Amino acid sequence: MSVILSRMVRNALTMMLGTFASRILGLAREIITAALFGASRSLDAFYIAYTLANLARQLLAEGALSAAFVPVFAQVLEKDGCERAENLARQASSVLLFLCAVVVVLGYLMSPLLVSLMAPGFDVEKTNLAVSLTRWMFPYLMMVSMAALAMGVLNSMGRFFVPAVAPAMANVAYITIVLLFASRSGVSCLVWAVLLGGVLQMGIQLLAVSREGVSLLPAIPRKGDPELRRMMLLFLPYAAGLSLNQINPIISRVLGSFLQDGAISVLNYANRVIQLPLGLVVIAISQAVLPELSRCLLEGDRVFSETVRDSVRFALFAILPITVAACIVSGPVIHVLFYRGAFDEWAWNATSLAMSMYALGLPGMACSTVIMRALYAKGLPRAAVAVTVSSVVSNLVISVLLLRPMGFSGLALATSIAFTLSSFVGLYLLSRKTTHRIGLFDVSWIVKNLVALSALTVALYGLSVWYPYPQNGSMAWRSLWILLAAILGGAFYIGGAAVMGSGELRWIKEAVVSKKGKGQKNRDKSND
Description:
The protein is mainly α.
């Protein structure tokens, strides 16, 4: 296995490990929110406010910033050293803070219009609550933007664990605030929980950057800086494309506002569960691969194409078993996570169905996310925008077609289909810009994975038949059933992959051995 692939897999595994705590705490916060607020009118209003603030965050902080900053910073760090890269990062922080300040002010002033666009089906009382919550939520953008900049610096320097763990601090803050103040403050306490979490998420990553000897104190941008200019030239089209991409959740919210009360909340709960594997696998791999793709461009098109191919295959190898398992055991998973308090049987069945529909899109999300990182690394903003446009258009058309016959589940399925279609569009556009054939799939790879997935499917259906989920059992007993399903399904999948000689298993083994060897070498040096 190449050094690049070994490093990418190792960094992705580190990201997965660090992200696990954050995602588990993220599920815990949704469990607590569901128990206290159920699927209610006030929670619908909060999620509209959170979606608007999150839209701005993903557009500026974790979207266009990462797409434009990380490839340029990683290449400058590789070619010109840490001092030059630090200067570039400080200039970028000035530009970012200015843009965020403008967006926060505009967001406050335009909150009534934004809410009316996001949720035209809300009544007056529900709309007024959403507007109030939105105005309080927008400063969150400033905090997570600086956190995202720090994350980009750390990832480019080969530090992945702290950025993965940092969101866990935000979830700890959220859970603490909600448990202490929900009974007295109602849904407004959720806003303060999000804001405090943003402060902690920013602080821990800025501290980690300073320990690496890099300062992110704003510096006056220099007009003649070619790398800053290159970054900004990439930032603007990426921002435009990603702003289109954020229409996808808006489509679900807008159409969901015309459905029964609780529809938006149900979609959010299901999406939060899907965020666990999405963050653990897809996002972890995409964050690990972006700096590597940026560097390997210096080694030629063949190395770049092979890294893209292997990254997509590794992402699919990890996400496909989760997709199959999520579709089979969505009911038990939602039941054990949320079925308590105000979360009733209707919410359970509805969320289980939505989760299955979202799960079908995980492979497409995995492919699309990695391919988009390849487009970012190669500096192809027009192609990235085209992929986004294909996703939005297909999502809108399919959502409208499925809304009447399928309701909220149709909105979830439309999102999955749209991501899958956009991944094919992205692969086609990327292939046109590479001289070396990517060769993403071949018959041998497909057969190996089908055998492994078949083994997993047989195991889970066999468990459901011979030992059904104990719906009326204790919490401990139901949780053990989920754990048993995960262990059994994972064992059969890995066993099937091993029998078929899966290359991805070999990559993981080599990456783990490489990491152990590196750790032992560092310990030996410290003992000298």
